[in-house]
């Protein structure tokens, strides 16, 4: 049982949907980013996705690309991202942290070393965008063995034939990408998402969390009501991009969390 | 080296799209079904005679193949050693080898019912070739090009627009070729139904490295026959420049099992591989990593962040290299060297003066290495280099470096 499994068990007992947020580690700098992350649980966030900055985020739209660039320019690294998790864990030992990013910085550190360090830093799981099931031997299998969740994306292009393969080595939860496209793109429609969630549910007992293109408390509520929870990323990151204060960012997060929890 | 362990060097990639440890399919889930479909369609087309008949017809009547094999007599005499031949792929329609591959991919796209073609381009040669073939077939064409390259390759931008393509200047990242490739991939995940991504080199996720190689291998197949005709034997050394590695793989592939043939790939050494990363020599100065769908040698920092390369040649300005080259390097079947901007410029000028051929800056790198080794080799040593592009697109850059005012 990871913190992720615990969190979903508690939410289920309370009959509540999960609210998940994505923020880029180190955006716009280490201190501000740590302050935001530390404030997320009190704002109603159930699971934190922590973005690992990378120079070439090929599945991300401009908001998250620029957040990564700001973080890298401010000196962010994989090591400092793990440090941010450690610092967060000094004040919070229950909220799950999922590292989300691309494979190269992890591969560069060495998979075994990374898994050991991530576990020790209090990371609970990971989403690595450029590791499909076809490359499971790289990180997915070793991560599961190390007791970390490997959360996979299912997408509108994941057809019936492929779905079992996508679900096979997934743990923690399934992240359903609501649109074909990159982060921060068009607004998702609950009516499109509902049948897709049902399709995935028929093949797995894992919770289904829906993300990409969710920007308002209303959409968060609508999407969460047809799934087990929802993720918001770019809409939060863009506040940091526009120079909003930590207090303003967290107030917006709270409005989104309230929306998702109404579902 | 371990080359004696292999029965053949021509069997790769394996079913996981790997050449040894390199290659693979490191893409997001949204793209995975698309590249599996592409692989299935390509595997089918590859064994379909009508597919190759269409290719050969267009290669002959539209591109102008076979390209000549030319004995560079005055250059040979000047260098005073090995006998130098040039495979004249710069005479192809659109002025480079790029169109060999584009034709293959566009014929495949048409068979798959795709109506919108996207491409990335650095120097603009792949973009021009793609725009050209799209015009010929009446397909919509969108070309992603780094904003920095849009500026330094203005004539090619205009050509693409004349040919009806939409050129999108890419400002994400640092606005170079790798960023153009990122944006093309972002377009593809967004437009999954009607769009075909036509990659310009032997990189990207499987099946691209193998597919692009197979389309470019016409260069090496012709070269082999032409050398047999001209000399009654194979060359001793074959040499090509490497950006992503497609013209090189095209020349090298048919020779891989002819172990008497020395194979040399020439990377862009920029200001020198010893200085801090002001070059694009991924094999000489990089280490293995994962980018753009495959594992290969990359220019990267200690944190695994990708670095921008530097080269006078926009076509070689890529921080990675095709995975098959990474494998050939590791097993020692091919040798990889670096040539600086300065050496390439010298070769560019010598080729103009001695042979009446204005080469592109990319093959000028290969030629610069020929200039280095030919004088040290006996007169009966035969070198074949790939003259993969003509220099029309580069005259502005070269004029600037030689201090020549083009306005006069
Ligand atoms: C003439 C020419 N040669 C070489 C290259 C480099 O590509 P590759 O290594 O794939 O042949 C380019 C790319 O634009 C080019 O235009």
Please describe the structure with a list of short key phrases separated by commas or semicolons.
heterodimer, A: 263 residues, alpha/beta, B: 408 residues, Rossmann fold, 2 domains, 6-stranded mixed sheet, 14 strands, globular, binds pyridoxal-5'-phosphate
TL;DR of this structure?
The complex is a heterodimer of chains A (263) and B (408). Helices cover 46% and strands 14% of the residues of chain A.
Biggest sheet record of chain B? 6 strands, mixed
- Parts with pLDDT < 50 across at least 5 consecutive residues of chain B: none
User: How many helices of chain A in DSSP terms?
Assistant: 12
Please give the share of residues in helix of chain A: 40-55%
Helix and strand run of chain B? EEHHEHEHEHEHHEHEHHEHEHEEHEHHEH
β-strand percent of chain A reads 5-15%
Query: SSE order of chain A, as H and E?
Result: HEHEHHEHHEHEEHEHEHEHH
Average pLDDT score of chain A: 96
Give the chain pair forming the largest contact, with residue counts.
Answer: A-B, 46 and 36 residues
How many angstroms separate the termini of chain B?
Answer: 55 Å
Classify the helix fraction of chain B into a percent range.
Answer: 40-55%
CATH homologous superfamily descriptor of chain A: Aldolase class I
With helices defined by DSSP (H or I, 4 residues minimum), what is the helix count of chain B?
A: 16
Tally of DSSP β-strands of chain B: 14
Q: Quickly name the level 1 CATH class of the largest domain in chain B.
A: Alpha Beta
The order of strands across the largest sheet of chain A is: 5-4-3-2-1-9-8-7-6
CATH class of chain A: Alpha Beta
Please give the largest β-sheet of chain A.
Answer: 9 strands, parallel
């Amino acid at each position: 049982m990871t913190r992720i499994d615990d969190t979903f068990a508690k939410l289920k007992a309370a009959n509540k949907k999960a609210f998940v947020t994505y923020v880029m580690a180190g955006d716009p700098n280490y201190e501000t980013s740590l302050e935001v992350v530390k404030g997320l649980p009190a704002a109603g966030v159930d699971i934190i996705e922590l973005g690992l900055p990378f120079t070439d985020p090929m599945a991300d739209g401009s908001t998250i690309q620029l957040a990564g660039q700001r973080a890298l320019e401010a000196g962010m690294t994989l090591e400092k991202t793990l440090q941010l998790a450690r610092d967060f864990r000094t004040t919070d030992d229950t909220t799950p942290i999922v590292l989300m990013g691309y494979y190269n910085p992890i591969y560069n550190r060495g998979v075994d070393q990374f898994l050991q360090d991530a576990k020790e830093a209090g990371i609970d799981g990971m989403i690595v965008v450029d590791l499909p099931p076809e490359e499971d031997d790289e990180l997915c299998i070793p991560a599961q063995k190390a007791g970390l969740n490997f959360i996979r994306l299912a997408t509108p292009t994941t057809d019936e034939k492929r779905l079992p393969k996508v679900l096979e080595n997934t743990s923690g939860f399934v992240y359903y990408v609501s649109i074909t496209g990159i982060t921060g793109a068009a607004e998702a429609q609950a009516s499109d998402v509902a049948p897709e969630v049902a399709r995935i549910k028929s093949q797995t007992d894992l919770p289904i969390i829906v993300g990409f293109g969710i920007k308002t408390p209303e959409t968060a509520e609508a999407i969460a009501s047809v799934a087990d929870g929802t993720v918001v990323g770019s809409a939060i990151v863009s506040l940091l991009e526009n120079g909003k204060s930590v207090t303003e960012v967290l107030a917006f997060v709270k409005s989104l969390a309230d929306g998702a929890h109404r579902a | 080296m371990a080359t004696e362990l292999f029965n053949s060097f021509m069997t790769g990639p394996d079913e996981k799209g790997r050449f040894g440890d390199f290659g693979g399919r490191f893409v997001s889930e949204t793209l995975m079904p698309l590249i599996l479909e592409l692989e299935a369609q390509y595997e089918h087309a590859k064994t379909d005679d009508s597919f190759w008949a269409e290719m050969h017809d267009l290669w002959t009547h539209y591109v102008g193949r076979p390209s000549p094999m030319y004995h560079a007599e005055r250059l040979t005499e000047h260098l005073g050693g090995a006998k130098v031949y040039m495979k004249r792929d710069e005479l192809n329609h659109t002025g480079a080898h790029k169109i060999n591959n584009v034709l293959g991919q566009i014929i495949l796209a048409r068979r798959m019912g795709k109506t919108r073609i996207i491409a990335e381009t650095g120097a603009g040669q792949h973009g021009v070739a793609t725009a050209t073939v799209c015009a010929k077939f009446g397909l919509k064409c969108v070309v992603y090009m780094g904003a920095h390259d849009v500026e330094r390759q203005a004539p090619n931008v205009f050509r693409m627009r004349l040919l009806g393509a939409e050129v999108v200047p890419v400002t994400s990242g640092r606005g170079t070729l790798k960023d153009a490739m990122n944006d093309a991939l972002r377009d593809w995940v967004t437009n999954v139904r009607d769009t075909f991504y036509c990659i310009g080199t032997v990189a990207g996720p499987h099946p691209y490295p193998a597919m692009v190689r197979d389309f470019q291998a016409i260069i090496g197949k012709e070269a082999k026959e032409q050398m047999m005709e001209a000399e009654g034997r194979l060359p001793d050394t074959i040499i090509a420049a490497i950006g992503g590695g497609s013209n090189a793989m095209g020349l090298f592939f048919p020779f891989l099992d002819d172990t008497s043939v020395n194979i040399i790939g020439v990377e862009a050494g920029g200001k020198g591989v010893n200085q801090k990363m002001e070059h694009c020599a991924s094999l000489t100065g990089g280490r293995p990593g994962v980018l753009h769908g495959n594992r290969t040698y990359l220019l990267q920092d200690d944190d695994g962040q990708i670095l921008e390369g530097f080269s006078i040649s926009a076509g070689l300005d890529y921080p990675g290299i095709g995975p098959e080259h990474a494998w050939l390097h590791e097993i020692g079947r091919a040798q990889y060297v670096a040539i600086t901007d300065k050496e390439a410029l010298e070769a560019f000028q010598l080729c103009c003066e001695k042979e009446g051929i204005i080469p592109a800056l990319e093959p000028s790198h290969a030629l610069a290495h020929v200039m280095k080794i030919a004088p040290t080799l006996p007169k009966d040593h035969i070198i074949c280099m790939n003259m993969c592009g003509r220099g029309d697109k580069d005259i502005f850059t070269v004029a600037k470096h030689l201090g020549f005012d083009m306005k006069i």
